[in-house]
Specification:
The complex is a heterodimer of chains A (292) and B (276). Chain A has 292 residues and is mainly α. Chain A has a single domain, classed as Orthogonal Bundle (MetI-like fold), CATH 1.10.3720. Chain A contains 13 helices and two strands; from the N terminus they run H-E-E-H-H-H-H-H-H-H-H-H-H-H-H. A two-stranded antiparallel sheet of chain A has the order 1-2. In chain A, helix 8 packs across helix 10. The radius of gyration of chain A is 23 Å and the shape is globular. In chain B, helix 3 packs antiparallel against helix 8, helix 4 packs across helix 6 and helix 7 runs antiparallel to helix 8. The two termini of chain B are 34 Å apart.
C-alpha cells in the first residue's frame, strides 16, 4: 500500500516546524559561519571587513594556541571517555546484578547526570582548592591543583568522568539487559569463570551498545567547554578548542577568525563521526537498529 | 553459607561506594554553603558551625533571584516548544508513511552531534541585529532547537510502543488523522511526552555556553552564567560562600526531579539511544 498524497502532506505539515527550526537555528548559522570565515571581520573594526580567502584558516593553522588546544581536547576526550567506559561498565554491572539497593543505586546515580555542569565543576574546583578544599588535607598534600597544567588537566578529567560516567552506565545497562541469560547460564555450567563470561560473552554481545555509547560520548567530550571555563578559564595551557572559539568570537569579537575556528571544530566532529561509522559501520547500525 | 554472606557484604559495600561517589560533591557544596564566612577556609569537609548568611546574601542581591526567574522561565518555555514540535514530528515519523522519514531522523541526529560553539558567532551577530541579544527569546530559540533531536528520538521510541490498533479503530470509525491524533494517541502518549519534557528541561537548565554568549545582563542571564560571573569583594577573590549557596538552590530542583521521576528519566535516556 503506497501512502496517499493526503497522508504525505499531513506528515510534512507535522514535521515542518521542527525541520524549519533546525534549519534556521543550526543549518543556516553553520553556512553563514563558513562564509564569515573567509572574511577579515572584526566587530570592533567593522569598516575593515574584506574578503581574505583562506587567510583565517592559515592563521589558525600556524597558531600555537590552536594546536595546544587541539592537543588538549584530544587528550581530554580520549582519556575521559576511556575511563568513563570502564567506570560506566562497572556501575552498569553493579546496577544489573545487585538485588537489594538497586533502586537506591539507580536513583543516586542520576544525580551526577542531572546536576548542572557548572555547579559540578565549581564543587570540584573548591574541593581541590589549596585554601578552601578538603582534598589536600585528606591526602596530606600541599598541591595548587589548578595552576599547574598536568594537575589541572587531571582535575578537569576527574570532573568530567564524575559527571558523565553515570550516563554511560545507563546506556550500557540497557545493553546488558539484552544479553540472554541462558547463554550466560550455559557458560557457567561449562565452568567459565565470571571474568571469562564477561570477556567472552557479555562484552562481545554488548559491542553495538558500547559503540553507540562511545560515539555519543566522544562527540560530546570533544565539545568540552563548561568544566574548563569554570575551573581554569583556559589558563596554564588548559584551553580546549571550544574555549578558543568562544574567546575569539565573544571576548575578542573577531567574527572572521572565530568562524574559522568554529568551522574547524565542526569539521573535527564530522571526521570523528565518519571514522566511527567507517571503522564500526555494521556494529553501529545494529546498535541504532536495536533502538527502533 | 559463608560465601553467600560474603557476597551480600560485597554488594553492600559496592552500593555504599556508589552512593558516596554520587553524593560527595553535593554534600561538599552544601557544607560550604552552610559554613560561616570566617570558616570557609578551614579545609574541613563538614562545617563546625552552621550559618544561613550566604543564603540571605544571594537572595538580597537582585542578581540571583533574577537569574533564577530567567532560568525557570527560559527552560520552561523552551521545553514547552521543543516537546510540542517534537510530538508533531515523532507522530509523523512513527505513524505515517512518507518519503523523508529517515531524512528527518537523520537530520535530528546531525543536530544532536553539533558543536554549539559552531553557531555562536553567527547567532551572536544576528541576535544583535534583530534585537534578540540578551532576551528570553534569544535563548529559548537555540535551546528549543538543540533539544529537538532529544525530544524527537525519545518521543519516537515511546510512540512505537503504543498499540496501533486503537488508532486504526478510530480511523475506521470515521475519525480523520487529526482527530485520531488528539483523541486516541495523545492520552496514551502522555508518559513519553512527560519523560521527554524532563530531559529537555534538564538540558536547558544546564546550558552554559549559549547563556554566557548571548546574554549580558540580568534581563536574560540564567543561573549557570550568573554563578560563574558572581563577583566577590575583589576581582581576584571568588565569593565562595555565595557561589555554594546558589549552587545548592539550583541543584535542589534537579535532585527533586531525579528522586520523583527516576524510572522515567532512565527509560527516556536509554530509549533514545538503545532500547531497554
Amino acid at each position: 500500500m503506497t501512502p496517499t498524497a493526503a497522508e504525505k502532506r499531513f506528515a510534512w505539515l507535522l514535521c515542518a516546524p521542527a525541520v524549519t527550526a533546525m534549519l534556521v537555528v543550526t543549518g543556516w548559522p553553520v553556512a553563514y559561519a563558513i562564509w564569515l570565515s573567509l572574511f577579515r571581520y572584526d566587530l570592533r573594526f567593522p569598516g575593515q571587513r574584506a574578503f581574505v580567502g583562506l587567510d583565517n584558516y592559515l592563521s589558525v593553522f600556524t597558531s600555537e594556541v590552536w594546536w595546544q588546544a587541539f592537543g588538549n581536547t584530544l587528550l581530554l576526550t580520549v582519556v575521559s571517555v576511556g575511563i568513563e567506559l570502564v567506570v560506566g561498565l562497572a556501575l552498569a554491572l553493579l546496577m544489573h546484578r545487585t538485588v537489594f539497593g538497586r533502586r537506591t543505586v539507580r536513583t543516586v546515580i542520576l544525580i551526577p547526570y542531572g546536576i548542572i555542569t557548572v555547579v559540578a565543576a565549581l564543587a570540584w574546583k573548591f574541593a581541590f582548592d589549596p585554601t578552601t578544599g578538603f582534598v589536600n588535607a585528606l591526602l596530606g598534600l600541599d598541591q595548587a591543583w589548578l595552576t599547574d597544567r598536568p594537575s589541572a588537566l587531571f582535575v578537569i578529567i576527574f570532573t568530567e568522568v564524575w559527571k558523565t560516567a553515570p550516563f554511560m552506565a545507563l546506556l550500557l545497562l540497557a545493553g546488558l539487559t539484552l544479553v540472554p541469560e541462558d547463554v550466560l547460564q550455559a557458560a557457567r555450567v561449562d565452568g567459565a569463570s565470571a571474568w571469562q563470561r564477561l570477556w567472552r560473552i557479555t562484552l562481545p554481545l554488548m559491542k553495538p551498545t558500547i559503540l553507540v555509547a562511545l560515539l555519543f560520548r566522544t562527540l560530546d567530550a570533544f565539545r568540552i567547554f563548561d568544566t574548563v571555563f569554570v575551573q581554569t578559564r583556559g589558563a596554564h595551557g588548559t584551553e580546549s578548542v571550544s574555549l578558543v572559539g568562544y574567546h575569539t568570537l565573544v571576548t575578542r569579537l573577531n567574527l572572521g577568525l572565530g568562524s574559522a575556528v568554529s568551522v574547524l571544530i565542526f569539521a573535527c566532529v564530522v571526521v570523528i563521526a565518519v571514522l566511527f561509522v567507517k571503522a564500526f559501520g555494521t556494529a553501529l547500525q545494529t546498535g541504532v537498529d536495536d533502538a527502533r | 553459607m559463608g560465601r553467600a554472606a560474603n557476597r551480600g557484604l560485597w554488594w553492600t559495600f559496592a552500593t555504599a561506594a556508589v552512593v558516596t561517589y554520587a553524593l560527595i560533591p553535593v554534600a561538599w557544596i552544601l557544607s560550604l554553603s552552610l559554613k560561616p564566612a570566617a570558616e570557609l577556609n578551614d579545609k574541613r569537609f563538614l562545617p563546625s558551625s552552621v550559618s544561613l548568611e550566604h543564603y540571605r546574601a544571594i537572595f538580597t542581591d537582585p542578581q540571583f533571584p533574577a537569574a533564577l526567574w530567567n532560568s525557570f522561565g527560559i527552560a520552561g518555555v523552551a521545553t514547552l516548544l521543543s516537546v510540542t514540535l517534537g510530538v508533531f514530528a515523532a507522530y509523523a515519523i512513527v505513524r505515517l508513511r512518507f518519503p523523508g522519514r529517515r531524512l528527518v531522523l537523520g537530520g535530528a541526529l546531525t543536530v544532536a552531534m553539533f558543536p554549539p560553539v559552531a553557531v555562536i558567532g553567527p547567532l551572536f551577530e544576528l541576535w544583535r541585529k534583530l534585537g534578540l541579544f540578551d532576551t528570553w527569546a534569544g535563548l529559548v530559540l537555540p535551546y528549543m532547537t538543540f533539544t529537538l533531536p532529544l525530544a524527537i528520538w525519545t518521543l519516537a521510541a515511546f510512540f512505537r510502543d503504543i498499540p496501533w490498533d486503537l488508532d486504526k479503530a478510530a480511523r475506521v470509525d470515521g475519525a480523520r488523522p487529526l482527530q485520531a491524533f488528539v483523541h486516541v494517541l495523545a492520552p496514551l502518549a502522555a508518559p513519553g511526552v512527560f519523560t521527554a519534557a524532563i530531559l529537555v528541561f534538564l538540558f536547558a537548565w544546564n546550558d552554559f555556553l549559549f547563556a554566557i554568549s548571548l546574554t549580558s545582563t540580568n534581563a536574560a542571564r540564567t543561573v549557570p552564567a550568573a554563578i560563574a560571573f558572581f563577583t566577590g569583594s575583589s576581582r581576584f577573590e571568588l565569593p565562595t560562600g555565595s557561589i555554594a549557596a546558589a549552587s545548592v538552590v539550583v541543584t535542589l530542583p534537579v535532585v527533586l526531579l531525579v528522586l520523583l521521576f527516576q524510572r522515567r528519566i532512565v527509560a527516556g535516556l536509554t530509549a533514545g539511544a538503545v532500547k531497554g
